[in-house]
Specification:
This protein has 178 residues and is α+β, with helices and mostly antiparallel strands. The protein has a single domain, classed as OB fold (Dihydrolipoamide Acetyltransferase, E2P), CATH 2.40.50. The chain has 3 helices and 12 strands. Strand 7 and strand 8 form a beta hairpin. The longest helix is centred in the first third of the chain and has 12 residues. It is globular, with a radius of gyration of 18 Å. The protein starts with a helix and ends with a helix.
């Protein structure tokens, strides 16, 4: 009698949605090195669409500051992320970044099919929040279980905790300048 409930629980556990995707942790140097553009940008709009058999969401970002790349302040970049919702149908990929309209982010972007994608999924999207009147950059990597490559042990991404935008700006510029 005990076998049936145990088997049922095992089947349910195997079919449970994933809480995170595994990804190799990228430090700040790796994010900068893999990015075509490193900018501070604000989300203007988001629009989901079909791309073959999957849902993707286009995100329009107005550039407020440029650390690396050829974008100019005031231009609008188009990003794409996997997932979104069209009508009653939705698709979610753990580790893909989510964006809030009007919110600002430090973005590490790479060219992909004529658009931009964040480097390292959500690792390349660092939210900026005001704390005591100062802009603080929050760690990225939401929805990702970050690991080291060789051993697969737990690792940290570019930021372990909130950091003032001014100090992150200095660090990125030091990495970008020869």
């Amino acid at each position: 009698m005990l076998r049936l409930p145990v088997a049922l629980l095992a089947v349910l556990a195997l079919n449970a949605p994933a809480a995170a995707s595994f990804a190799v942790a990228l430090d700040l140097e790796a994010l900068v090195g893999r990015a075509d553009q490193v900018v501070v940008g604000r989300v203007l709009a988001q629009q989901p669409r079909w791309d073959g058999g999957r849902i993707v969401t286009d995100i329009l970002i107005e550039v407020d500051e440029v650390f690396a790349g050829d974008a100019a302040v005031g231009t609008v970049l188009q990003l794409v992320r996997f997932g979104g919702a069209i009508g009653e149908l939705g698709m979610r990929i753990e580790g893909e970044p989510s964006f809030e309209d009007g919110a600002s982010y430090v973005l590490f972007l790479r060219q992909w099919r004529g658009l931009y994608r964040p480097v390292g999924m959500s690792q390349g999207v660092l939210p900026i929040e005001e704390e005591d009147g100062a802009p603080m950059v929050q760690p990225g990597g939401a929805g990702l279980a970050l690991v080291t490559r060789p051993g697969g042990t737990r690792a940290f991404g570019a930021l372990r905790g909130p950091r003032p935008l001014s100090s992150l700006r200095e660090r990125i510029r030091a990495l970008v300048e020869p």
